[in-house]
Amino acid sequence: MPCPISDDEIQKAKDRKHRKARMDQRTRERLPVLPVLISTTDRRRRAAADLLRAAQGTEPGALVPSTDGSLRRAVVPKAAGHLTWVEETNSGRRRNLSYEEEEAFWAFAAIEVLRLTGIRNEELLELTHHSVTEYRLPSTGEVVPLLQIAPSKTDTERLLLVSPELADVLSTIICRLRAPNREIPLVASYDVREKVWNPPMPLLFQRDIGTEHRAFTPTAIRKLLINALAATGLTNADGDLLTFSPHDFRRIFVTDAIMNGLPPHIAQVICGHGSIDTTMGYKAVYPAETIEAHRAFIARRRAARPSEEYRTPTDEEWDAFLAHFEKRKVSIGTCARAFGTPCIHEHACVRCSLLRPDPAQRARLVDIRDNLTARIAEAEREGWRGEVEGLRVSLAGAEEKLAQLNRRPSLGVVDLGMPAANLVGGHLASEHHPPKGSS
Q1: For 22-288, CATH number?
Q2: Half-sphere exposure of 204 toward its Cβ, with a 13 Å CA cutoff?
């Protein structure tokens, strides 16, 4: 029994196009404001670190310097010793500056690593101290830092070149995590996709919770991004607070890289995509980009052609150009060959595929066909075999031109008539459309 659901009902092409359009619009909204997010996050990190240092150097119960008397070092006897608490002098609300500084730092670190690498969120959480490797160029001996990405979605390991900006961020993370013995604590993480616990590793994205180190979770990264965006005050077209997901940085990375000249197949390797179509699906299309690319193509094409083709023609050249179109009219139609090209059939127009026959010359074409038929019969009767072949080519051309005329739709003149106007009840009405209520 055939399936009652037709193929047309399960086609998802339109849904995929709509989804692509929404993703492109999301990228176009976020790419221009990315510098604002980066600068705001960095300032927030530095301000939180400065405030924490100032509070740590203040005696309990005293006002924190450089806060205009708005914060006081809180007296919290039962609080953990590694946490620094303050009170707002006007409201009495307590704030955990250690937590605020930690949140600001890791939001900065996550945003920087995501935007500079284009890796997935799960790949970010699996970065370890061992992921930072080096490669020595065989030609110059220069040492190039690389970031090793563990297999994730496509089960393919890949290496990314570490830029100076990324190297600075990674070194800051490593220095923060190092214990007094210069080692990074080993932390076990839970893989939410594989549903398994990974063995303890020196993860780069880990934090202190109580007296132990724990790995960041995908939910924790999203919460960091939400708080960082709230601090910027950025809004979307509807006036709502702008939101970023970890995958938005991946799409922005692909779009920005390809727009700045990175070949798409190289972007495919960097992102670890199995198909280049997936990579191009991440790349948002900009109308201005399309226009500029088209203009650049025209400029390259003009540069490859002789420059004299783009000069102003002389009067003699212009007269020759106009004369070409005057000479295109022949007895049975119009020649459609391009300007400056010779006649390839030595003016045997009935054989030429570029001839457009004139419907008014149908009778002349019929005479030519009948004459050719009679000449072929005469040549066969007289034994002129050499002439028969040429006449048959001309006869086939004449019959083809008649067939072209027969395929054209007949455009006869249709008399629509001219409706007479009558004045009925003070209104102008047509005889073909009498007014409502008239007899």
Answers
A1: 1.10.443.10
A2: 25
Q: Which residue matches tokens 């100032």?
A: 54
Q: How many CA atoms lie within 13 A of 388 on its CB side?
A: 10
CA-based nearest residue to 233, from 224, 225, 242: 242
Would you say 45 and 105 are in contact if contact means Cβ atoms under 8 Å apart? Answer: yes
pLDDT digits (tens, 9 = 90+) for 163-209: 899 999 999 999 999 988 889 999 999 888 788 898 999 999 999 88
- Helix ranges (DSSP H) in 57-156: 97-117, 121-125
Give the whole-angstrom CA distance, residue 220 versus residue 224: 6
Q: Mean pLDDT throughout 266-291?
A: 79
Tens of pLDDT, residues 198-257: 899 999 999 988 778 899 999 999 999 999 999 988 888 788 888 899 999 999 999 888
Identify the CA nearest to 134 among candidates 142, 149, 145. Answer: 145
Q: Cα separation of 100 and 161, whole Å?
A: 32
d(CA 361, CA 136): 81
Side chain identity at 242, as an amino acid letter?
A: L
Q: What DSSP element (H or E) covers 430? A: strand 427-430
Token readout for 154 is 């496509």
Does residue 46 carry a pLDDT above 90? yes
431: which residues sit within 8 A by CB, 6+ positions away? 419, 420, 422
Q: Which amino acid is at 304?
A: A
Whether 82 and 73 have beta carbons less than 8 Å apart is answered as no
Q: Is the dihedral of CA 427, 432, 438, 439 positive or negative?
A: positive
Element (H, E) at 224: helix 218-232
Instruction: Give the chain's length.
Output: 439
Do the Cβ atoms of 377 and 413 come closer than 8 Å? no
In 3-state terms, what secondary structure has residue 349?
A: helix
Q: Where are the domains of the chain?
A: 22-288, 327-406
For residue 330, with 0-12 CB atoms within 10 Å meaning exposed, 13-18 middle and 19 or more buried, which class applies? Answer: middle
Structure tokens at 99: 């937590």
Buried b (16+ CB within 10 A) or exposed e, 337-349: eeeeeeeebeeeb
CA nearest neighbour of 86 among 56, 107, 44, 119: 56
Residue tagged 């040492």 (tokens): 143
- The DSSP element (H or E) to which 424 belongs, if any, is strand 421-424
CA distance 186 to 224: 23
CA–CA dist 230, 242 (Å, integer) = 8
